[in-house]
Prior knowledge:
Elements: E1 3-9, E2 18-24, H1 33-46, E3 69-70, E4 73-74, E5 95-99, E6 108-110, E7 113-114, H2 117-126, H3 146-156, H4 163-167, H5 174-185, H6 194-207, H7 218-222, H8 230-256
The protein binds iron/sulfur cluster and FE2/S2 (inorganic) cluster.
Amino acid sequence: MDFKLKVWRQDSPEADGEWARYEVEDINSGASLLEMLDILNERLITEGERPIAFDYDCREGICGSCALTINSVPHGPRQVTSCQVFMREFEDGQEIVLEPFRATAFPVVQDLAIDRSAFDRVVEAGGYISVTSGPKPEPNANPVSPEIQQDAMDAAICIGCGACVAACPNGSAMLFTGAKSTHLNVLPQGEPERYDRTARMVEQMDAEGFGGCTNTGECEYVCPQEISIKVIGELYRDYRTSMIHRLRSRRGDMKAQ
Length: 257
Ligand code: SF4
Ligand code: FES
């Protein structure tokens, strides 16, 4: 199969980017999109040109590293990770447009590679539980209903790819943050820090420059893990409760003075 490629090239975070056009020929229909880029990069290296930078790790749809906007849709139209897109999904001779995930909070590092460390800082702000060391409690000592287990697992499968942010017209990270807080908040192990955790993660999300949610739903549409937008409702609810807790504690302090 032959393809025309329009690819975003940007030398460094500070440089102005520009579109470059390439043609690739004789690509096996069973090749993945990333394998096609490998083939193109081998050619560019042979021709003395800098290869196209792009992120990946597992290439199995697990790690969330790969981040390509394919024909204007983060990860492409099939709701899978970029590494799971195959050349047979395109028409022979078709033009394919490849650009990085676009969001203020995800600066371009080079070409198609972006810096998603803002996500790490949101998780560092509260995406963990504090545990005391000592003998492990018997697992059944903390009964959890199958429904709650399912809710936690449905949120825990977020792989932190960032497509939700790139698809959102506001560059919002509410789906990601909602998934990362919900999977801890609904379980007994995450309950003690539930509201502090939520407030810290939301505050970090805002500090990183992610936008707010206006319920457009684009995030859910592109998420390769099918995270439900209902985690955003959970995030809103827990954040509101955390604000009430803060207000009450401030009032308590004022009364005590
Ligand atoms: S919520 Fe979905 S789209 Fe967003 S980071 Fe997690 S897996 Fe990726
Ligand atoms: S490279 Fe790991 S999910 Fe795509």
